[in-house]
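Hi,

I'm pasting everything inline rather than attaching a file, because the server keeps stripping attachments. The sequence lines come first, and each chain or strand is labelled.
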Amino acid sequence: MNHAADLPLWAAIPVALLLLLGSGLALTGSIGLLRLKSFYERLHAPTIGTSYGIFCVLLASVIFFTVMQSRLVMHEVLIGIFVVVTTPVTLMLLGRAALHRDRLEGKDPTHPVEQREAAE
Amino acid sequence: MRRLFPHPLMSIALFAMWMLLNETVAPGPALVGLVLAVAAGWVMTSLRPTRSRIRRPGVILRLALHVIVDIARSNLAVAQVILRPRKDRRQGFLRVQLALRDENALAALACILTATPGTAWVEYDTETGWLLLHVLDLIDEDSWISIIKQRYEQPLMEIFQ
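And the predicted assembly:
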């Protein structure tokens, strides 16, 4: 990618902004993994990276390669589709595994909030 | 026609994917893609997937637009929760009774809910139709339920009726 300097300014600015925004969102998701307290809360953090985080990076890639090669480069769309379609699989697997473990240990976290608050 | 293309939508999608990966409209790769798409349709038949009829392209478009906007909003909301934690934030589980029964429609709903940061699909009971969700910022349970039912489930039922 040593010819990246050939990119005209009007394309370089949106590409740089989108890359910054996308990686910023992915970073926020990773910080969330560190900061959030419970396992179920931490399930939510990486989805920032797999939704608009990846979307911004892919859009930057589309603009960059379309301008550099002077033709429409669109196969990034496939990455986006596959990420959206496959994340539920891992997420549900992790969520259900955690729920199963909690239930085995006799502390089902899914009781309605009111009941749990009343019990406390 | 049905015998040749048992799964027309899937064949078209596969062909489009092949062309995107090859990044060309040359006849050679197109022919290979065509053969692959048709053959994959026959393979799918022996797997016996649940068939759904997909209708109402207008509703699909509107739903897609809603989802794109909602995901953007919840990206910001979750980023705020992470970067500027509030003391009064309440996380918790949410139960929703779904009327949606079509397997493919449920898969689409799962993709929407998991792609949206802030809601995670945890468990679904195929017999009773109860869906268990985990919500990161549970302000008002009833408004979450009505969002899911009216904004996502209703259009999905119209599409996959």
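Helices of chain B lie at 8-22, 27-47, 57-83, 103-115, 141-159.

If the labels don't parse on your end, tell me and I'll reformat.
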